[in-house]
Design brief:
Blueprint (H helix, E strand, L loop, with lengths): L1 H40 L3 H4 L2 H17 L3 E6 L16 E5 L5 H11 L1 H17 L1 H9 L8 H17 L5 H8 L2 H18 L2 H41 L1
Antiparallel strand pairs: 1-2
Helix pairs in contact: 1-9, 1-10, 3-4, 3-5, 3-7, 4-8, 4-9, 5-6, 5-7, 5-10, 7-10
């Protein structure tokens, strides 16, 4: 029983706890970025400057919904809310249904709801490696042996800003969708931890989980830094425009 509890705590700590904390911080800062962009440049700023981020946000929901076998009813990767309707604040959506009898599909709701927080950082890191390998190499290898091209750096900068403004902010509908799968996910975790107790030990599992989650945790940290820099820049712009 003690071994089971140790393994369960490792699964919750390394597999869930650290990504959840980092993801919550990124989502919060991104929400502020969207809010500040509207304060600085008006309603359309969140769509113009965050449009690509919004599209990636909705694609994240779509991709993960398909991975969990959900039926896709309707998709709007980006839309303009009705400004005459104060309740209409959606900039995009993915409408989907699932088999209530399927534990896998029910548990998938957790990941579908928070998919942008999981996939946007990976997209940001992947585009950094593709467009500005010098920055990527410097961040992870502390080396500056690669040169970044000017056009690629500009594209990378604009994409990072767009994702920071429009990519991470989770709506109430996203969070409510995730909540519907929490019980099912908990059952999966409890059973999986029991299986892991039979085939491994806490020390080996800690090493494996650390290695497995390192790419996601690193991507989330990178996304948090980028979002933080965009937040500071938007605060500065707001100060300049409203002093």
């Amino acid at each position: 029983m003690q071994t089971y509890l140790e393994i369960l705590s490792l699964v919750f700590g390394y597999g869930i706890g650290i990504p959840v904390i980092l993801g919550a911080l990124v989502a919060r800062v991104s929400h502020q970025n969207k809010f500040l962009s509207v304060q600085v440049a008006g309603f359309w700023a969140q769509i113009i400057f965050g449009g690509l981020g919004i599209i990636i946000h909705e694609l994240s929901h779509l991709v993960v919904a398909l991975l969990f076998g959900h039926h896709i009813k309707e998709v709007a990767l980006i839309r303009i809310p009705n400004r005459q309707d104060s309740t209409d604040q959606s900039l995009g959506y993915v409408s989907h249904t699932w088999n209530q009898a399927s534990l896998y599909q029910r548990a998938g709701n957790v990941f579908i709801g928070i998919a942008p927080v999981l996939l946007c950082p990976l997209v940001m890191l992947g585009l950094t490696r593709l467009l500005v390998p010098g920055i990527y190499t410097f961040l992870f290898n502390q080396s500056i042996d690669q040169v970044n091209h000017g056009w690629a750096t500009i594209v990378w900068f604009l994409v990072m800003v767009s994702i920071a403004i429009g990519g991470f902010d989770l709506s109430r509908a996203d969070l409510e969708n995730s909540q519907t799968g929490l019980t099912s996910l908990l059952i999966v975790i409890l059973v999986a931890s029991g299986v892991l107790t039979l085939i491994t030990d806490p020390t080996s599992l800690k090493t494996s989980l650390s290695a497995l989650m390192a790419p996601l945790d690193g991507a989330l940290l990178f996304a948090l830094v980028v979002n933080g820099l965009v937040y500071v820049a938007l605060l500065f712009l707001r100060h300049l425009l409203h002093r």
